[in-house]
Amino acid sequence: MTHELIREWKQDGFRLELFDTYTTNRDGKARLAYRFYFSTADRPYPANAYSRFKGEEHLIFEGEDFYCSPLHAIDSDECIGALLGFLSSVSVIPTESTLTTTLRNN
């Protein structure tokens, strides 16, 4: 199955990749795949707190089970926020500065 990377978000050592799977559910919602990583290289904490894993990136979550609201584009800030909320069970809204930085780096 082909997946296209459509968005990437980074903040405080975390990175989220969002992929279009080119499939929909019976309601017409796009099924999206994702990978969520933790990197010790970009952590704002003292180096000794993560010295055992220094410079490594670790996959935390991976899946193909996210359906964005049909009110939002699949590559929108709202979709990223909803997915972060889905993964953490907390409502998250990415800040404009982190999204701008991410978009500029791609």
Oligomer: single chain
Strand content: 35-45%
Cα-atom radius of gyration:
15 Å
Which blocks of ≥5 consecutive residues have pLDDT under 50? 100-106
Derived from helix and strand composition plus strand pairing, the structural class reads: alpha+beta
What is the average per-residue confidence, as pLDDT, rounded to a whole number?
79
**Overall domain count:** 1
Strand order in the sheet with the most strands = 1-2-3-4
SSE pattern, N- to C-terminal: EEEEHH
The number of helical segments is 2
Distance between the termini: 24 Å
The 3D shape can be described as elongated
Q: Report on the biggest sheet.
A: 4 strands, antiparallel
Explain how this protein is built.
The protein has 106 residues and is of the alpha+beta class. The chain has one domain. It has helices at residues 77-88, 96-105; strands at residues 4-11, 14-24, 30-39, 57-67. The protein has a four-stranded antiparallel β-sheet with strand order 1-2-3-4. Strand 2 (14-24) and strand 3 form a beta hairpin. The protein is elongated, with a radius of gyration of 15 Å. Residues 100-106 have low confidence and may be disordered.
Give descriptors for this structure.
single chain, 106 residues, alpha+beta, 4-stranded antiparallel sheet, 4 strands, elongated, disordered C terminus
Draw up the topology in text.
Elements: E1 4-11, E2 14-24, E3 30-39, E4 57-67, H1 77-88, H2 96-105
